[in-house]
Amino acid sequence: YMECVDRFLMSCVGYSVGTFIMGIMDRHNDNIMMTHDGKIFHIDFGHILGHGKTKLGIRRDRVPFVLTEHFLCVIGQGRPVSKDSHEVTKFKKLCCDAYMRLWEERDLFLSLFTVMQSMELPELSTEADLDHLK
Length: 134
Hints:
This protein is mainly α. The protein has one domain: Phosphatidylinositol 3-/4-kinase, catalytic domain (Phosphatidylinositol 3-kinase Catalytic Subunit, Chain A, Domain 5, Orthogonal Bundle). It is 43% helix and 7% strand. A hairpin with a 5-residue loop joins strand 1 (32-34) and strand 2 (40-42). It is globular. The mean pLDDT is 87.
């Protein structure tokens, strides 16, 4: 059981930091999945680099990544957790560590997305689209 909780925690960290950095939008329960052993994975990457959906000029996505009470309950081993609990503090530290590790490789990351511009993806076609990564 604890291995699954740890796997969930680590994949939740990766998902949170990854979607934040790449500006992956339109995250909801229909496109956030979980494997039988506790890993989170995603489908539907139609909105990236901060290009979120709007309706009547209002942005649908209002947070940089989704972290539900249910996610926190799993991280808390089945118990609701507070924002200053040990589990949430550990989650925040792991997110900061992951972010800083990716920050160290930001030039490589930006270069890879620059190369992908030639693929003419709708949300990665101009130099301005890369601004989200800078």
